[in-house]
Design goal:
Elements (H helix, E strand, L loop, with lengths): L2 E4 L2 E4 L3 E6 L4 E10 L2 E11 L9 E7 L4 H18 L3 E7 L3 E6 L2 E6 L3 H16 L3 H18 L4 H12 L3 H8 L2 H18 L12 E4 L14 H8 L11
Parallel strand pairs: 6-7
Antiparallel strand pairs: 1-2, 1-5, 3-4, 4-5, 6-10, 8-9
Length: 249
């Protein structure tokens, strides 16, 4: 028996005909009754009800580093096109850290990044953007823009990219730079380092500790399975009901 939500109340189907659109999650039921020799039909608007998934955004975590070629491609192409289509259906959490060697001296953190000092700079810029831009979706698009700018221009000049993407996404860049220039950026990066280490400690195979590494955090998904490959398709196959944009590629 199907269970529907009608005006905020659970209701099971009675006698009569019903139609339901799996794409939109909407439908109606023609309730038919018989009284004193006369048939009566009443149309009731319906919406599929699911306490666990209905109206939930898919939570996605992305572990990455800013100068890793695979991370750059994922941001510039895969994540960008997915957000263009499905930004209303997914909630992306960025973790800009990757394979950093972190040390502490006199209460200050020091970082050695896999792709050199420029990558540490980029990771801090991403961390600061996430921190100072109150609109989470705008922060995500801003960081995607930074990655795409570098990839498209083959120049990893984050200063130029900052102002370019700031103009496009209406971000007050001096606030991001101020964050980077003080100890706040160190603290933010250390926080992402702790999150990265805690996550990869759950991955038993050392060879699987790579970036980018993308996981789904809800909808009953395996929270350690990498979803980077065929990301858009995996998003569409996980969200219930499947979003309309998934049918029009």
């Amino acid at each position: 028996m199907l269970v529907y939500k009608v005006s905020g109340v659970k209701a099971s189907m009675g006698s009569g005909q019903h139609k339901f659109n799996e794409t939109t999650g909407l439908g109606y039921h023609n309730h038919i009754s018989y009284n004193n020799g006369t048939y009566h039909r009443e149309r009731v608007e319906l919406k599929l009800h699911d306490n666990n998934t209905q109206n939930k955004k898919l939570k996605v975590s992305v572990y990455y580093e800013t100068l890793c070629p695979a991370s750059v491609e994922f941001f510039a192409d895969t994540l960008r096109t997915t957000m263009d289509r499905l930004s209303s259906y997914i909630d992306v959490h960025l973790v800009p850290y990757g394979h950093i060697e972190e040390s502490t001296m006199l209460g200050r953190s020091y970082f050695k990044c896999q792709h050199g000092p420029a990558e540490c700079f980029g990771n801090m810029i991403h961390a600061c953007a996430i921190n100072v831009i109150s609109d989470k979706k705008k922060a995500l698009k801003f960081n995607i823009c930074l990655m795409k700018y570098g990839r498209d221009n083959r120049v990893w000049d984050f200063q130029t990219a900052l102002h370019h993407c700031g103009r496009i996404h209406a971000v007050y860049v001096p606030e991001v730079i101020e964050c980077f220039q003080n100890i706040r950026s160190d603290n933010l990066l250390s926080k992402y380092g702790e999150e990265t280490y805690n996550f990869f400690n759950r991955i038993t195979e050392a060879k699987q500790r790579y970036v980018p590494y993308v996981v789904f955090e809800n909808y009953g998904a395996n929270t350690t399975e990498d979803r980077t490959s065929n990301f858009l398709q995996q998003v569409c196959n996980t969200i219930v009901p499947k979003p309309n944009p998934c049918y029009h590629r």
